UniProtKB/TrEMBL annotation:
Alphabetic keyword roster: Cell membrane, Membrane, Transmembrane, Transmembrane helix
Species the sequence originates in: Streptomyces siderophoricus
Similarity comment: family membership: Belongs to the YccS/YhfK family.
TM spans (from-to): 21-42, 74-92, 98-117, 124-143, 149-168, 413-437, 457-478, 483-500, 506-526, 533-554
Record has Transport as a keyword: no
Record-given protein name: FUSC family protein
Domain Integral membrane bound transporter: 423-546
């Protein structure tokens, strides 16, 4: 991508305004916290303290809107504490420019490294830099600095108190995450009806798992609906895939495929109903047609073999998913069947038990129990999240892991620290007041990747123009006093909280107007405020963009390493499943589960890197965009095939499989060689593994799920080799050793 196109796309992205669901009650609650703090300070007759304390309540409120599974009061208090510390330290060094620049650079470096802990921590670190730049411009003594810091913490305390006193949709984030996972699987089931090998993005399941990680206090208060459906969602996905797959499940055409499509449609209906019930804390409402489909027909098409086992397991899992909502099931319209009420749940679960009475119960329930043991205690109860003090060692490990020259987070931290220092010195030299606005604009728009930095820079400047123009016009026409300015500032805060998720340009406009009105409380002239704000914001934005151009951290050159990491994680997952198939008695479900989670994390890292690389004005080095997409598709197929086999693992008392053992034994060194070849741009050769599979397939006569899955896995690996050999640079280095995919 050329620079002109990259800048054009970044500008378009930054100025995009999205339609999203608004949360007016939460916005009102956050605004009330800011208004309460400003009102108390004005009542005491100190406008400077009102300005200072307002930033504390304002910033604490912003963080509570982020997508975090931490309790909102804890977030508000933690951020308020960090804001208070940064404010006090800034006041201590503010009297000496050199000392303050050194402190600013060091603090900004730490704030930039906070992105290694997580996006919420990175945002909180950015807010602490902003508060250090803003509040130290208000003259005071050391005791006054303590008072400012205390008031800033008080602002966060007010926000936390309001969240506790006036909860708005408690557990809403967790409910949404779980409901999104169930709804994603419902959509997956519908797509499988038309495309038996449709892809599935595991991101909703990863978010649901993150949402299920709770503190000990949360675990005691968590609603019953959030206890079990996530584990069922994890187990339903491989069953859906194995039922729809034309090689392992039902044939591609014929009566069995029609029956499979009906089951997939009914499964989608049930999963959507459960998702709606979880999201809104309501009873599950199921149409009678879906219930009827999930019963074994007395006549008509019947499934056979692995597809039959998958169908029994699916029906049993769907019944369990309905039961675990702990709410009565309701029919969507009156029927002639028996009363439902609480007994509707019995109808939903009876479907699964009726399947068992026809001989499938042993298969379905045994498979469900064994599949459910993947992650054991994790699915049965909850994942325990450590308290905030216990996060310190983990945070330090994250910082240490990213403290290397090649890390894009470390380079971001160095970049933003240098820009903050240069911007502050430049703002001091320029003939304007409020010179801190230049470094403030830089820090607020800079992110670890190119696209976000440039898009936010454009959005920040355009939003600032709109915000200061509107606020300046109001100030010029109305000439409001301190209390009216405070009221207008509160209105801007409410608009920003309300429209926060619509786009950065919108929030920048609201923030800019808020700052104009807030400084109007302290008596700052609006003419000077508008002029300074526009010019210095432009300077800060240009500094941020120039810094990334001069000291980039491109993701494009790292794509091969990310792809190799995904192949390695996928390989460990495949080995864990095939070894469990080879030696059922020695199977360790937790090992399979952990390998699956590692594979998901590697896939997420790859997709994030690929998305960043697509927006960078950098020539690809060894992995073209087309090859990257094809390779990603091949590895996603590899994960899907492994997941299908995991859904059909034999019981622990089954006989060992010599063919599976030989396949796993050859797969391990083959994957090690392939991972190294991907990193070093070498050819991939799966001939030895294919020989082992052909011998195994000839011995079994294509009977059983494992040999079929092994063939599908080889096809995916051949697709990976073909994708990488199609890359021009890889072809130049000798891709002649690649085994072509069989037709």
């Amino acid at each position: 991508m050329t620079w002109s196109r990259a800048l054009k796309d970044a500008a378009r992205s930054g100025l995009t305004i999205e339609r999203t669901k608004l949360t007016p009650l939460i916005a009102v609650r956050g605004t009330a916290g800011v208004a309460l703090v400003i009102g108390l300070c004005l009542w005491r007759g100190n406008p400077a303290l009102a300005v200072s304390s307002a930033f504390g309540a304002f910033s604490s409120g912003i963080v509570t809107f982020q997508r975090s599974m931490r309790p909102r009061p804890v977030l508000a208090l933690a951020v308020a504490g960090a804001l208070a510390v940064s404010t006090f330290l800034g006041y201590l060094a503010a009297a000496h420019v050199a000392a303050f620049v050194v402190l600013l650079a060091g603090w900004t470096l730490l704030a930039g490294m906070a992105w290694a802990i997580g996006p919420v921590s990175g945002l909180a670190g950015t807010q602490t830099v902003a508060i250090m730049l803003v509040t130290v411009t208000l003259p005071t003594s050391v005791l006054g600095a303590l008072e400012h810091a205390a008031l800033i913490f008080f602002g966060g305390l007010v926000q936390a108190t309001l969240i506790v006193i006036f909860p708005v949709r408690p557990w809403g984030t967790q409910r949404d995450a779980l409901a999104d996972a169930l709804a994603a699987e419902a959509d997956y089931a519908r797509r499988l009806r038309h495309d038996p090998v449709a892809p599935f993005d595991p991101a909703p399941l990863m978010d649901a798992r993150l949402a299920a990680t709770v503190t000990a206090r949360q675990a005691r208060r968590r609603p019953v609906q959030l206890h079990g459906p996530r584990g069922l969602a994890e187990r339903v996905r491989p069953v859906l895939a194995s039922l729809a797959d034309p090689v392992v499940g039902a044939p591609l055409e014929g009566p069995e495929r029609d029956r499979t499509r009906d089951l997939l449609a009914a499964a989608a209906t049930v999963l959507d109903a459960v998702a709606h019930a979880v999201r809104h804390a309501r009873p599950v409402r199921l149409p009678p047609e879906a219930m009827a489909t999930l019963e074994v027909p007395a006549t008509g098409p019947m499934l056979n073999g692995p597809a039959r086992r998958s169908a029994y397991r699916l029906i049993s899992l769907l019944a369990d998913a309905v039961e675990l909502t702990d709410e009565p099931v309701q029919a969507t319209r009156p029927t002639t069947e028996a009363k439902r009420g609480r007994g509707g749940r019995e109808q939903g679960s009876r479907d699964g038990r009726e399947q068992g009475s026809r001989g499938g119960r042993e298969q379905g329930s045994r498979g469900g129990r064994e599949q459910g043991s993947q992650g054991g205690r994790e699915h049965g109860s909850h994942l325990l999240r450590p308290s905030v003090p216990r996060l310190v060692p983990a945070a330090l490990r994250s910082l240490h892991r990213e403290a290397r020259w090649s890390s894009h987070i470390f380079r971001h931290a160095l970049r933003v620290a240098a820009v903050a220092a240069v911007g502050y010195l430049l703002g001091t030299v320029l003939p304007f007041g409020h010179g801190y606005w230049a470094p403030l604009a830089s820090v607020m728009v800079m992110r670890p990747d190119f696209a976000q930095t440039y898009s936010r820079g454009v959005a920040r400047f355009c939003g600032t123009l709109v915000g200061v123009a509107v606020a300046g016009t109001v100030m010029a026409l109305v000439h409001p006093g301190a209390y009216v300015s405070a009221a207008l500032a509160v209105v801007c805060v409410w608009l920003m909280y309300l429209l926060m998720r619509t786009g950065f340009s919108v929030t920048s406009a609201c923030v800019s107007a808020y700052v104009v009105f807030l400084l109007g409380i302290a008596g700052a002239g609006w003419e000077q405020t508008v002029q300074e704000r526009v010019v210095l914001t432009l300077v800060g934005g240009l500094l941020a963009m120039l810094s990334y151009a001069l000291f980039p951290a491109w993701e494009t050159p790292r794509l091969r390493d990310r792809l190799a990491d995904w192949l390695d994680a996928n390989g460990r997952y495949a080995l864990a499943v095939w070894e469990a198939c080879a030696r059922p008695a020695a199977r360790r479900p937790r090992q399979v589960r952990e390998a699956l989670l590692d594979a998901r994390a590697a896939r997420a890292a790859w997709e994030k890197s690929e998305d960043r690389a697509e927006k960078e004005p950098v020539r690809h080095r060894g992995l073209s965009p087309g090859s990257a997409k094809a390779a990603g598709t091949a590895l996603a197929t590899m994960g899907r095939v492994t997941m299908i086999l995991e859904a059909h693992l034999p019981a622990k008392d089954s006989e060992p499989s010599a063919g599976a053992a030989a396949f796993a034994a050859e797969l391990r060194p083959g994957l090690e060689r392939a991972t190294k070849a991907v990193r070093e741009r070498g050819p991939l050769n799966w001939s030895a593994l294919r020989t082992v599979w052909e011998r195994w397939d000839a011995e079994t006569g294509s009977e059983g799920v494992a040999p079929r899955a092994a063939g599908l896995l080889l096809d995916a690996l051949d697709e990976l080799a073909e994708a990488l050999s199609g890359d021009p640079e890889a072809r130049e280095e000798g891709a002649q050793g690649t085994i072509p995919r069989p037709q």
